Structure formats: structure tokens, C-alpha cells
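Troubleshooting entry. The earlier prediction with 6-O-phosphono-beta-D-glucopyranose gave an output that would not parse, so I re-checked the input for stray whitespace and re-submitted. Clean input:
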Amino acid sequence: MNTKAFIFDLDGVIVDTAKYHYLAWQKIANELNIEFTHEHNELLKGVSRVRSLDIILELGKVTASQEDKDRWLVQKNEEYLSYLVDMNESEILPGVFPILKFLKENNQPIALGSASKNARPILEKTGLLPYFDAIVDGNDVTNAKPDPEVFLIAAKLLNITPENSIVFEDSVAGVQAANIGNMTSIGIGEANTLHEAKYIFNDFTTIDTHFIEELIKE
Ligand code: BG6
Ligand code: MG
């Protein structure tokens, strides 16, 4: 059987943490009197914490000292972490676990490719850590998505070429990163947002194992 690298983004793909990031940023935006909508939030998906704050400040045309920014970054993460305290396997998005299980049973290597610096505790809390052969997160990269660095490191750790790597992503920046890295991009979410992806699914419940088998064979 062929071997492909299966690389998963975390937030919004494996767990529904995108909503917590949104709530935590919204609190900061409110305090600064900056309007921050769901559409604005799309711009932050896949984007690092530091860059996310800059985008919000740009939206509100707010200039701030580094000291203020550092304070807001800490505040945002504390707020975000407060949503994760009771996290468990019930927060794994529907359909994800059966696909991970299928990949494991078929000896396909699995990696995480996430911008988050909170990735490891989330995988631990949801019990998914043992499914990952490699973890590349916000602590390991210098260039944020759409730079393909995070996925290229992941493929390398799995010993698979980019051309034989498949990336699951819910963010525009992440889909672009996979494409720029010459990987097969699979968008998880809305087709009109993720139209640059090679394949698009609403969520993992609509991905069947036959599709995965075909990807492995390709
Ligand atoms: C990405 C999220 O996965 O991680 C972004 O899509 C988030 O919304 C980024 O800002 C960084 O996450 P963290 O947990 O390090 O703040
Ligand atoms: Mg994501």
C-alpha cells in the first residue's frame, strides 16, 4: 500500500476552538471599541496570535505601544485558556475520530500542522495525542501561514515528500499554505470561503473512507 502524509490543522478542523478564539478576541476588541464581526474573524483563522492582534488594531485604526500589545496578548490567551479548562474528547469535531482511526489502521502517518502555541495541551485533553506521529505548532515555526513552513516541516518529520502530503484546513491562509507547498489541500468549511482548496467538504462527516483510500492510491 502507498504511504501518504496526512497533515491536520487543529483549530476549526479537529476541535471547535475557532469559536473560543473569536470570543476571546471579541472581548479585547470590545474593550478597545473596535467593531469585530464574524467576517473579520475569517481573517484571523490560521493566523498567529501576534498577527491577529495587529489585524484587529488595523481594523480599528488603533496604534498602540508594544507594552499595551503584550498585555492584550496575555489577556487574550488567558481568556482563551479559560474556555479550554474543561475540554475533553466531546469537543472533537464530528467525523474526525473515525478518519484518524482509519488512517492509523491503514498505517498512514499523521501530523499536526497548527499555528497555535496551545496545540499540545488540546491534543492531550481530547485524548488524541497518541494518533499523531509528528506535531508542528506555533512554537516551531518562524513563518506564519500562508507560508508553507509548518506543513513542510511536518512532511519532513514524517519522511514524506510534499507532493505526497495531504492537508486538512479550515482557513484560507492554511489552504494557500498547502497549495504553495505543493501539497493536496482539503478545505473543511464553506466552499465560497475555501474555493482555492483542491477538495472541499463541509465537515468530516461528509468524508468517507473510500475518498481517503483513493487519496492513498493516487
Ligand atoms: C490558529 C487559529 O490555529 O492558531 C488562530 O486559527 C490562532 O485563530 C492561532 O490565533 C494561534 O493560536 P494560539 O493558541 O497560539 O493563540
Ligand atoms: Mg484552523
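This one parsed fine. Residues 9, 11-13, 45-46, 170-171, 174 surround magnesium ion (ligand 2) (CB under 6 Å).
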